[in-house]
Request: fold
Amino acid sequence: MPGGRLTQQERQQISVGLADGLAYAEIARGLDRPTSTITREVMRNGGPADYRADLAHRATQQRTHRHKKAAPPGAQALPQPYGRDAEAVRDYQEALTTVYMTSGLPKMMARVLGCLYTTDTGSLTASELAQRLQVSPASISKAITFLESQDLVRRERDERRRERYVVDDDLWYQAMVRSARANDQFIETARRGIGILGHGTPAATRLENAARFLDFVSEGLIRAAEQGREVLYTRTPTTPDGAATPRSDRA
Reply:
């Protein structure tokens, strides 16, 4: 965390900023901190509606104390390939997790997804996830079930018949299409209500406009997903001078 850990005074300023309705970026500028630091601090301690400076500060002290008292295996930054800075990778994974949380994912689901996306293989077993995140297998199972339901991960079996949880390129396409199609039920229901409420009435017009808008946006998203699908299969190998040369792996 640039500038060291947040102080109690800084947490008080965050609390005041939230109460005043300031955006995370504005609070961050006032403290000369990265926006991601403020976002992570708030989301880790109850969210913008329930953030309390004193409770957040106490919780941080307790976490630090527990870590120093008995840091479990795997709590330290794992050794990294390609000469990566292990601490930097761990901090980045935490920042990515925060982004997933702010987009609406529950914390454990966000942690699992962040862990998977920062592995080169893009896949881990339940036991590997549990060890890396220092949580119970039951927590991993619950998170995976949720992520599967949202088309954010998929399962496969490796050569040892172990079940692995995978994130790959096509999942982004599938998730985009699923998100667009999720509007279909509302569109259908809204249009059914137009006849019941009476064409031309304010309520019916409101529903009709909403249905037309969502129908237009959904079709646009699906067309964009189809057109952009090729991007998911484009690799960018680098030349010796560091320049990227995009190419597609698909025929």
